[in-house]
Please model this.
Amino acid sequence: MALPNIFKKDVSVDVVQRVKQLAPDTLPGWGKMNVAQMLAHCNVTYEMVYEENKHPKPGFFMKLILKNVVKKIVTNETPFKKNGQTAPPFLITDTRDFEAEKNRLIQHIEKTQELGENHFEKKESHSFGQLNSTEWNNMFYKHLDHHLTQFGV
Model:
């Protein structure tokens, strides 16, 4: 079954509304991150798209592993499992500003929807090589849905 399309206005508006339901004291149903850290964690995906030099690109060997093993897990329609392993660039352990991270995430979601699926068709991913727009959608939507569900929204 296809995941909701984050590039569609109604879907992105729904996801943004879920983000807006979060509060600084919202507790997770599982995991170690607090809500501000989770928002920062979700922003990493978008930083890798929109802030090219913020995260170092993986080397040849690591990119090979990512493309051949991790890509399918991240871009397919199967939901992530609770308490799954987090890749090092996505580990957020320091203190983050809830409002700043929330606002950044909303801006990233809205920018992605405005750019649309044609922009992402065959766009090079930071870690996985070229992805089609369905793979981009699955990566964006599935990750957001996983963490918003983690925090009860």
